[in-house]
Specification:
Layout (H helix, E strand, L loop, with lengths): L3 E6 L4 H11 L6 E7 L5 H8 L4 E3 L8 H14 L4 E4 L8 H6 L4 E5 L11 H8 L3 E8 L9 E8 L6 H26 L1
Parallel strand pairs: 1-2, 1-4, 2-3, 4-5
Antiparallel strand pairs: 5-6, 6-7
The structure holds 5-O-phosphono-beta-D-ribofuranosylamine.
The site of 5-O-phosphono-beta-D-ribofuranosylamine (GRF) has 15 residues, from helix 1, strand 5 and helix 6.
Amino acid sequence: MVFKIGILISGNGSNMLNIINACQTNFLSSEVKLVISSNTKAQGIKKARRKKINTLTIEEKKFHTKNHFEEEILKSLIKHDVNLLCLAGYMKILSKEFLKKWKYDILNIHPSLLPAFKGIDAPKQALDLGVKFSGCTVHYVNEDVDCGKIIDQRFVKIDKKESLTSLKKKILKEEHKLYINVIGKLEKEV
Ligand code: GRF
C-alpha cells in the first residue's frame, strides 16, 4: 500500500527529513502529505519547507484545551488525506480521545530498545545504568506511552568510554535506517 504520510514533530526533524527524502527518491512509494510541528521554533519545519512539503505549526498554547488543540491536528490530517501518522520527535502525548478518533495507524520512534528505558532521556538512562547495548525501536502508538506493539528495532554497542553525545549520534544514525525500513515493510504488508 502506498501511504499518504503525516509527520508530527517538535524539534530538529532529522527522522522527518529522512522519511521525506526516502519518499522523494523513491526508496519508499509513499508520499509525505503534511508535517505538523507543535513548536514554532522547530528546525524541522524549515527543512520540510525546503523539500516543498506542506507544513503547519499548531501550538497547544493557542487553544483553550488539549482537546481543541488535537481537534485542529486531526482536522488538518484529514484535510490532507493522511492515512499513516508518523511521530518523529513529537514531544507531546496524544490523548485517548485523539487515538479513538484517528482511524489509521500511528508509528513512533524511540531511542532505546523498548521495553527498556521508556520516556525521556532514554540514551542517558541507558548510560547511567551501564548497559552494553542500546538502540532504537519503531512501535505502534497506543494509550500507554512507549508501550505499543514493537514493529522493529536496531541495536548499537555502547563502548567503555561512550559519551552521551556519541551515543545519541550512534542511535540517531540507526533510527534513520530503521524508520524508513519499517515504513517500506508496511507498504508491502498492508
Ligand atoms: C529521536 O531520538 C527519536 O527517537 C525521539 O526524538 C528524537 C527526534 O530526533 N523520539 P529528530 O527530531 O528526528 O532529529
